[in-house]
């Protein structure tokens, strides 16, 4: 049980050199339709305007922790350790929420004691398009989280659209401190393997994909280490920790993620690394169509791959309309 004086939700915001966007993110939190929350900003060694902005905010719900630069996983875990609420929501400092995000996701999260996390759909700001197109549900619960990932190009829970049970998060190991890229995907998989996942169909988070220099956009550095989520899949699958009902979809997702990683290596001109990764992964399903596509990608000229990607991005970049997302 949590203390009667404790908030219902703790919001953790990791911060590093994102001062230019920080006010927008914090304002979106303080505009929430529910008020029973605390905001924990973990300043991970910022040297820009972020610390000054935090000093100027007067709000009893704001907690600021400063530390030397240790990486986003350590920062988020530190925020979780300081959280007083049974539910923890995450928001990246360069993204934002619509006013009903906490109210709506918490309502779903609290419908069952077996829910480990709940997430909403989210808008891509430049295109004004929701990023999730198909999520099969049984009531508020996602039928199969890993099928959802494959059907939505790997998109599911994100570090700006999810609320998690603190108890579940700690029990499954929190964020992997050693992982510098895609560490959040690894945690979301572990949460889905250890509890039910809820989903809010409304797009209540805004992902600012136009912001430069974020870890998710630093593709070349991010794809070279073997992905943490694949390490975890290998371990959990070998030890038979994955629930039976999710084994097949988890296997399909692992193969999809491996194929995606190999194709990204090819796009970055790292074709030898791509071929080596594809051939050395023992559990891969050689019949998987994603892996066949990845194999072809490793033999195509990098210039051809980049032209194809540029054309696809241009086709997707046209905004759906001029509607405001912040209403």
Number of strands: 11
Taking pLDDT < 50 over at least 5 consecutive residues as the criterion, the unreliable ranges are none
- Give the CATH superfamily of the largest domain: Spore Coat Polysaccharide Biosynthesis Protein SpsA, Chain A
What order do the SSEs take from the amino end to the carboxyl end, as H and E? Answer: EHEHEHEEHEEEEHEHHEHHHHHH
What name is given to the CATH topology of the largest domain? Spore Coat Polysaccharide Biosynthesis Protein SpsA, Chain A
From the alpha carbons, calculate the radius of gyration and give it in angstroms.
20 Å
Helix content: 40-55%
CATH second-level architecture of the largest domain: Alpha-Beta Complex
Structural class determined from secondary elements: alpha/beta
Could you tell me the mean pLDDT? 91
Tell the overall outline: globular
Report the top-level CATH class of the largest domain. Alpha Beta
Number of helices: 13
How far the N terminus sits from the C terminus, by CA atoms, comes to 36 Å
Task: Tell me about the largest β-sheet.
Answer: 9 strands, mixed
Total domain modules: 2
């Amino acid at each position: 049980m949590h203390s009667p004086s404790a908030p219902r939700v703790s919001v953790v915001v990791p911060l590093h050199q994102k001062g230019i966007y920080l006010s927008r993110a914090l304002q979106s939190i303080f505009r929430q339709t529910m008020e029973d929350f605390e905001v924990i900003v973990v300043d991970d060694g910022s040297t820009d305007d972020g610390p000054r902005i935090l000093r100027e905010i007067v709000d009893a719900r704001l907690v600021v922790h400063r530390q030397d630069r240790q990486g986003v996983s350590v920062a988020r875990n530190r925020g979780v350790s300081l959280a007083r609420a049974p539910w923890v929501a995450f928001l990246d400092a360069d993204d934002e929420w619509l006013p009903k995000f906490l109210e709506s996701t918490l309502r779903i999260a609290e419908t069952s004691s077996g829910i480990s996390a709940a997430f909403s759909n989210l808008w891509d700001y430049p295109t004004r398009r929701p990023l999730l197109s198909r999520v099969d549900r049984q009531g508020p619960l996602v039928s199969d989280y890993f099928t959802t990932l494959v059907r939505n190009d790997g998109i599911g829970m994100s570090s700006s659209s999810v609320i998690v049970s603190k108890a579940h998060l700690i029990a499954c190991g929190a964020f992997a401190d050693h992982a510098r890229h895609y560490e959040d995907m690894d945690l979301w998989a572990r949460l889905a393997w250890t509890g039910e996942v809820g989903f809010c169909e409304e797009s209540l988070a805004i992902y600012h994909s136009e912001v430069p220099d974020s870890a998710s956009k630093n593709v070349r550095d991010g794809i070279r280490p073997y992905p943490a989520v694949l390490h975890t899949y290998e371990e959990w699958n070998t030890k038979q920790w994955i629930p039976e009902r999710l084994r097949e979809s988890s296997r399909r997702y692992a193969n999809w993620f491996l194929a995606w990683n190999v194709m990204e290596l090819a796009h970055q001109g790292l074709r030898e690394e791509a071929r080596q990764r594809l051939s050395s992964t023992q559990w891969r399903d050689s019949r998987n169509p994603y892996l066949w596509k990845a194999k072809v990608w490793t033999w195509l000229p990098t210039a051809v791959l980049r032209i194809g990607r540029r054309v696809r991005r241009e086709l997707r970049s046209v905004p759906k309309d001029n509607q405001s997302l912040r209403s």
